[in-house]
């Protein structure tokens, strides 16, 4: 089944608006009408199974284009509008896109002259001249390629994750089930749609007939807080940096009531338990849902049920509905409680593979299992505790150190917004530990000695940072995820 049919087929007579917010309002009726018209144009002009790059900020038009590309049987390649020219050229060379759909600002900035380029003006013109199209179901096999999502590539060349129509349908169904989403749900979206977490919000709320509020300016914190009440948002989704900023950059979030906000979800990296405790203390009426996932799994792999948050604080929970998770050792055998192993996953949400990278695909998908590269432990009740990425482990004098353990201690210091633990070269130990802190300007009297003293009280001596550095702002990428280095 075509995933866009799955998302839209029940809403041909939906009376409500799908998109709300400062970027404008888009009704379900107009969404379906425009998706159908643009889809037919793609079918006639492009054909099917062609790669089409979409490079626009979140907007009504970007959503229409995204859905229309897949509805037409083509493959959407969402890219970060702020991508560097070198990275863009590499992806174009690898994907050979038939069309590029970009904002006029991006076209001018990047001086685009590759392939056929459509800006918002051209897309609007197409929609204005196309005749209305009655709803129709698209021919599609389940494993047909729907999209290629390129990983952030912070440490290596970005990989193109191939996501099928079946992958999207499976992950959307699972997320709706455990979050218990319905037509009344309205989610505030600050995550971009070239990121699988952002796309999962789009998919789930489309399927249930809910609404989304688009806000591309999280940096202006008050606009987000205003949206919560203005649009009666029932949900919010963020990566760790979003919650760290909400809780420690200002008191507005802590001191404001949000009567409609039913839940928040957090993924995109580990949020230290200090912040989760702080959130629950300030807003006990809002459910806090910890989640874990990967682009290679379409978006989501696990969640921690709200009722388990207190007793299993620090856990990423268990597999989402219809997904099996295991933590295994190097021989592929399930680990015993508290033994460290790698998280592997099996389900219909697991990617088809990496685009044009058969060797990398063979290393990552073995049999039916996705090998995530994430290290974890499991407790006696089967709850999983994420330890680190394999590449993040620091070896100090031959002893393995997880950065997250040290970061957890340091973010417990009042006034610390964020802490990153990285390895630096050391002639004696091989690697030594460096702590990079971001502190609230109102609490900037924290010294390196204070940090080391706190660590000495709570950690083994070899885990105490030898170097402590302060920086003004969080180092985050375009999805809001923290960048170490």
The CATH superfamily of the largest domain appears as ANL, N-terminal domain
| Strand line-up of the largest beta sheet | 2-1-10-9-11-12-13-14-15
Overall average residue pLDDT: 92
What integer value in Å does the Rg equal? Answer: 23 Å
Query: Helical segment tally?
Result: 15
- The global form is globular
Query: Any low-confidence stretches, pLDDT <50, length ≥5?
Result: none
CATH topology of the largest domain: Rossmann fold
- Class from helix and strand fractions: alpha/beta
- Distance from N terminus to C terminus (CA atoms, Å) equals 43 Å
Largest sheet: 9 strands, mixed
**Into how many domains do the coordinates divide?**
2
Count the beta strands.
26
Strand content bin = 25-35%
CATH class descriptor name of the largest domain: Alpha Beta
Family: Belongs to the ATP-dependent AMP-binding enzyme family.
GO molecular function, one term: ligase activity
Protein name: Acyl--CoA ligase
Organism: Carboxylicivirga marina
Structural commentary:
With 485 residues, this protein is of the alpha/beta class. The protein folds into two domains: 3-378, Rossmann fold (3-Layer(aba) Sandwich), CATH 3.40.50.12780; 393-471, ANL, C-terminal domain (GMP Synthetase, Chain A, domain 3, 2-Layer Sandwich), CATH 3.30.300. Helix 7 (165-179) packs across helix 8. It is globular. The two termini are 43 Å apart. The model has no long low-confidence stretch (mean pLDDT 92).
């Amino acid at each position: 089944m075509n995933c866009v049919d799955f998302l839209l087929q029940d809403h041909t007579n939906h009376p409500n608006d799908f998109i709300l917010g400062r970027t404008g309002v888009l009704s379900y009726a107009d969404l379906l009408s425009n998706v159908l018209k643009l889809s037919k144009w793609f079918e006639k002009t492009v054909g099917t199974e062609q790669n089409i790059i979409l490079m626009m900020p979140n907007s009504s038009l970007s959503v229409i284009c995204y859905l229309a590309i897949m509805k037409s049987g083509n493959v959407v390649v969402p890219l970060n509008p702020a991508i560097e020219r070198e990275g863009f050229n590499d992806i174009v060379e690898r994907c050979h896109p038939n069309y590029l759909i970009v904002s006029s600002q991006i076209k001018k900035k990047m001086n685009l002259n590759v392939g056929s380029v459509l800006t918002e003006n051209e897309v609007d013109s197409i929609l204005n001249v196309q005749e209305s199209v009655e709803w129709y179901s698209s021919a599609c096999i389940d494993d047909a390629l729907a999209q290629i999502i390129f990983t952030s590539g912070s440490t290596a060349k970005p990989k193109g994750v191939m996501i099928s129509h079946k992958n999207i349908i499976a992950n959307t169904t699972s997320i709706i089930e455990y979050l218990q989403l319905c037509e009344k749900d309205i989610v505030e979206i600050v995550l971009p749609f070239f990121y699988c977490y952002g796309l999962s919000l789009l998919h789930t709320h489309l399927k249930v007939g809910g609404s989304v509020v688009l806000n591309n300016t999280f940096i202006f914190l008050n606009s987000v807080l205003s949206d919560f009440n203005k649009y009666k948002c029932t949900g919010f989704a963020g990566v760790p940096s979003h919650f760290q900023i909400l809780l420690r950059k200002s008191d507005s979030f802590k001191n404001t009531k949000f009567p409609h906000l039913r839940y928040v979800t957090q993924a995109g990296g580990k949020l230290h338990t200090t912040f989760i405790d702080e959130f629950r203390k300030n807003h006990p009426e809002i459910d806090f849902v910890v989640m874990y996932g990967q682009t290679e799994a379409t978006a989501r792999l696990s969640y921690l049920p709200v009722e388990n948050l207190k007793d299993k604080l620090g856990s990423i929970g268990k597999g989402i509905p219809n997904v099996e998770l295991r933590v295994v050792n190097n021989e592929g055998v399930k680990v015993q409680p508290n033994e460290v192993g790698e998280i592997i996953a099996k389900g219909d949400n697991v990617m088809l593979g990496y685009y044009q990278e058969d060797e990398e695909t063979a290393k990552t998908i073995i049999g039916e299992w996705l090998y995530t590269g994430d290290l974890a432990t499991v407790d006696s009740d089967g709850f999983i505790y994420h330890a680190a990425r394999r590449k993040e482990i620091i070896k100090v004098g031959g002893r393995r150190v997880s950065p997250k353990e040290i970061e957890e201690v340091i973010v417990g210091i009042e006034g610390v917004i964020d802490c990153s633990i990285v390895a630096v070269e050391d002639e004696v130990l091989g690697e030594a530990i460096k702590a990079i802190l971001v502190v609230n300007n109102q609490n900037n009297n924290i010294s390196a000695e204070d940090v080391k003293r706190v660590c000495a009280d709570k950690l083994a001596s070899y885990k105490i940072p030898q170097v402590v550095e302060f920086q003004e702002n969080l180092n985050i990428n375009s999805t809001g995820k923290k960048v170490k280095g």
